[in-house]
Every structure is written in structure tokens, then in C-alpha cells.
Design brief:
Elements: E1 2-9, H1 15-25, H2 28-31, E2 34-41, E3 47-54, H3 57-65, H4 67-79, E4 82-88
Antiparallel strand pairs: 1-3, 1-4, 2-3
Length: about 90
């Protein structure tokens, strides 16, 4: 199992295109063995975080390479989102 934290920072006015991108892309997760564990957004709509997990690295790579995800990329670009992707793990005792 691999887990990632994605943090998107959106400029003013970027939320509509970002939401359209997410509507196109998030349903693809399950097709590639992925699960959206949490989806969080700040009250001002300027930062969104996703915690996603996949059965393995190959599943994550397949999701990233999905041509439907690539075809939605112009929406992400139009949103102006700055994306940070971090591989994360559970911390024992936390």
C-alpha cells in the first residue's frame, strides 16, 4: 500500500476549474486501485488536500498515465493550482 498527500493551492477564481478537473479525475482512482481517504478544503476555497492510497506504486503510475486524466489537464492548468504531492506513511503512536 502506498499513500500520498496532495495539496493544491488555488489563486482567487481558480476553484471552478479545479472542481471541474476533480469531477473528471477522482472517479478514475477506483479503476486503478486507488481510494480517496480524505478530501479537505479551507473555508476560503484556496487550499485543498487529498489523502489517497493505492495498492502499490504500479497502480499509482497507471492512474497518473491514464489518458482521461491527461485530457482533463487543461482544466487543472486553467485553475492556476500549484500542486504539491508527498508520499506519506502512518506514524506509530500518533
Amino acid at each position: 500500500m502506498v499513500t500520498y498527500l496532495m495539496v493544491a493551492r488555488l489563486p482567487e477564481g481558480g476553484l471552478r476549474d479545479f472542481d471541474a478537473y476533480e469531477r473528471a479525475v477522482l472517479p478514475l482512482l477506483a479503476e486503478h486501485g486507488g481510494t480517496l481517504e480524505r478530501r479537505l478544503r479551507t473555508p476560503d476555497g484556496r487550499v485543498e488536500a487529498h489523502l489517497v492510497s493505492f495498492a502499490g506504486d504500479d497502480d499509482f503510475a497507471a492512474f497518473r498515465a491514464d489518458p482521461r486524466r491527461s485530457s482533463a489537464a487543461p482544466l487543472l492548468a486553467a485553475s492556476g493550482a500549484e500542486i504539491e504531492l508527498l508520499a506519506v506513511r502512518d506514524v506509530a503512536g500518533a
